[in-house]
Amino acid sequence: MHIHILGICGTFMGGLAALARELGHTVTGCDTGVYPPMSDQLRALGIELMEGYGAEQLALAPDMFVVGNVVSRARRPDGTARYPLMEAILDAGAPYTSGPQWLSDHVLQGRHVLAVAGTHGKTTTTAMLAWILEQAGLAPGFLIGGVPMNFDRSARLGGMPPATPDGCARKPLFVIEADEYDTAFFDKRSKFVHYRPRTVILNNLEFDHADIFDDLAAIERQFRHLVRIVPGAGPNGSGRIIVNGLEESLARVMAAGCWSELRSFGAAVSDYTALGEPDRFQVLRHGEVVASVAWSLSGTHNQLNALAAIAAAEHVGVAPADAAQALAQFGNVRRRMELRASIALAGAPAGAAPVQLYDDFAHHPTAIRTTVDGLRHKVGDSVRILAVFEPRTNTMKLGAMKAQLPWSLDAVDLAFCHSGGLGWDAADALAPLGDKAIVAPDIDTLVAQVLAQVRPGDQILCMSNGGFGGIHQKLIDALGAPRVAAVSRPVAAVA
């Protein structure tokens, strides 16, 4: 089968492309503004990437066009289509489907699907769970919205797990990051309803995606749809839902109906709780210590992510103690507090502390605050943190959460904001930060502003869910002779 993927460099569609290649299919795809790490991964797989959505790509005549949710029927001011290829597909009556539907039809059938849903932490928790199952010898397949350090790829089919201790055959396992964003312009359901999971993690839930959801209640409705399709509990059922006991929004979702085995984590009265600091803690199940985790990650959010992953792994037969042992070797995910470089600042005195430059995917105000807090906890109050960020998501471009940005950044010493492409005044939104906030309309100006303020020992934290105009390398080149870290060291991760 030849499939041509529209929007191939998105994290989900790029992972789908890798799975299709592993199945032996011919894969081509198109996108605009491609950026690593996904573009690197796709080219390494021998997938031909085409720039833009030109109608001439119809001549490829694939067996199926797989349409990403970036594609729409939108028109430019002059009336021409933003996605001419989609218009050509519709006009020709060519076959097309969505990414989640193709995945369901060609990959997930016959598998025990473990899905990780929530506003934050999906990528990190999915990577944790996949690694736990891998270390347990269960050979899981996975599709993760990032590149996990332990696997160095975002997707794979996986293998056949060994039989259970009593000799029963297991279904192959597949771990997937379950996104609530809509499926495609022709299918407005959330992606995760296509996955038909047997094990589900509901990590957290707050308002996001203001471009497609009117309010939090609309998102909760989609989560209720997910809950409804999980198999039941009891002798004739095998579904489990693992829910964050600290989230009022998730409590409302579950109150609307739950037919599966329910396990909770996080709250004092939850089934799974933690005792100790986030980087070294005991795991309690119903008040009894069942495991101890000692690892390189920090932050309460990562502690909660770990509890969720441990509870999900236990559903497929992995003891909590074995899961905790696997987490000790968990290497996090690229672009989740990834240390990109340790830089000897040009002109600094001999022996001066280097500047550390981190790359993180944080883009929602809550994720930004959590990431900043994790770094602050690591470096202490005496070290300066310089946050460099761009409000790039559709939600942030609309300004739906601009009022939360000062709150999300109040623990940094300086906040540098790229304001290009925004429909609102970033300087005005960040005014509560006073002199700590610096705004620039383009990347080169932003780099120059950072250079004017940086000191030896500063921690520069770049946050964006896109390529950020290559700002990481521009800063590395400009700041001085870099000593790029041989191994990226995770500090605190948010999906």
Description:
The chain has 495 residues and is of the alpha/beta class. It has three domains: 2-98, Rossmann fold, CATH 3.40.50; 110-327, UDP-N-acetylmuramoyl-L-alanine:D-glutamate ligase; 338-483, Protein-Tyrosine Phosphatase, Chain A, CATH 3.90.190.20. The chain has 15 helices and 24 strands. The protein has helices spanning 11-22, 38-44, 84-92, 99-108, 122-135, 216-228, 248-255, 300-315, 320-327, 365-379, 394-397, 405-408, 426-429, 443-453, 471-479; strands at residues 2-6, 26-31, 48-51, 64-67, 96-98, 112-117, 141-143, 155-156, 173-177, 182-184, 187-190, 199-202, 240-244, 261-265, 272-277, 280-285, 288-294, 338-345, 355-360, 385-389, 414-418, 437-440, 459-463, 480-483. The chain has a seven-stranded mixed beta sheet with strand order 8-7-9-6-12-13-14, with helices on both faces. A hairpin with a 2-residue loop joins strand 15 (272-277) and strand 16 (280-285). Helix 1 (11-22) runs parallel beside helix 2 (38-44), helix 6 crosses helix 7 and helix 14 (443-453) packs parallel to helix 15. The radius of gyration is 23 Å and the shape is globular. The two termini are 33 Å apart. Residues 481-495 have low confidence and may be disordered.
